[in-house]
Specification:
The protein is of the alpha/beta class. 36% of the residues lie in helices and 20% in strands. The chain has a single domain, classed as Aldolase class I (TIM Barrel). Helix 1 runs parallel beside helix 2. The radius of gyration is 17 Å and the shape is globular.
Length: 271
């Protein structure tokens, strides 16, 4: 099965001061999405930015989704994460992207509290299902897997599940292939899963994920460097690097059409 490659363009922390190639406006995000799609990414993961500032503004969300769809056929996946109040993050899905993130638990990341209150999280899951927005469930630690399975039992997630294992974040699980093997073994049949690995762990762990039959994500959210001490010149450069790894394993990146069919995405939200 061809792996799904996701490009994570922006992120909730790094800015142009960290790497000038990070998109800072909806227009820059759309152009980066186009370049990343042309490099092999079928899914475009976005933390909203406007005038180089982080935002949860719904108008910005709608404009960003529209601009990306005008530029390329890549599947828009908006993040509901970041350091904003949860209620502000919830409304992002009203922009009706094809996909959006769902984080099942509150946790500590570095020196901040990443709040995902159970009551509101359940409301967000229900609203995403109502809108037809596919949930990309982000698993930062092994215990989060059980919370995801509980959402499935409550009929708040649609199968096939789309799961991301986030590895290497301080406060979450380490970038250890043994943890990845355990988590993959616990998944329901036909689950689509990918590796998200941070900083130095990005290329090694995504490579392992591809070798295990999974999908993979890269981009300036996950790593600012294309190789040690060399800043990535663009999101597309990082996608090209990961696609090269996949092709070295005789794997071809999944097309947008393959992803739509495999994940059972809502057709009217794709374009």
């Amino acid at each position: 099965m061809n792996p799904i490659i996701t490009a994570a363009l922006t992120g909730p922390a790094a800015t142009k001061k960290d790497n000038p190639a990070i998109p800072g406006t909806p227009e820059e995000i759309a152009q980066s999405a186009k370049e990343s799609h042309e490099a092999g990414a079928a899914v475009i993961h976005i933390h909203l930015r406007d005038n180089d500032d982080f935002t949860t503004d719904l108008d910005v969300a709608r404009r960003t989704v529209e601009l990306v769809r005008e530029k390329c056929p890549g599947i828009v996946q908006l993040s509901t994460g970041g350091g904003f109040p949860y209620e502000d993050r919830m409304r992002i899905v009203e922009a009706r992207p094809a996909m959006a993130t769902l984080n099942p638990a509150t946790m500590t990341i570095g020196e901040i509290e990443f709040r995902n209150p159970p009551k509101q999280m359940l409301q967000l899951a229900a609203r995403m299902r109502e809108l037809g927005v596919k949930a990309e469930v982000e698993i930062y630690d092994t215990g989060h897997l059980g919370l995801m399975l509980d959402l499935l039992k409550r009929d708040l997630l649609t199968e096939p599940l789309q799961v991301s294992f986030v590895m290497g974040v301080k406060g979450g699980m380490s970038a250890d292939p043994r943890l990845l093997a355990y988590l993959v073994n616990e998944l329901p049949p036909n689950t689509s899963w990918q590796v998200i690995a941070i900083s130095k762990a990005n290329l090694p762990l995504t490579t392992i994920g591809l070798a295990m039959g999974g999908n993979a994500r890269t981009g300036l959210e996950d790593t600012l460097y294309v190789r040690p001490k060399e800043l990535a010149s663009s999101n597309a450069q990082l996608v090209e690097q990961l696609v090269g790894v996949a092709r070295a394993m005789n794997l071809q990146p999944a097309t947008v059409e393959e992803v739509i069919d495999r994940l059972k995405l809502t057709p009217e939200l794709v374009r």
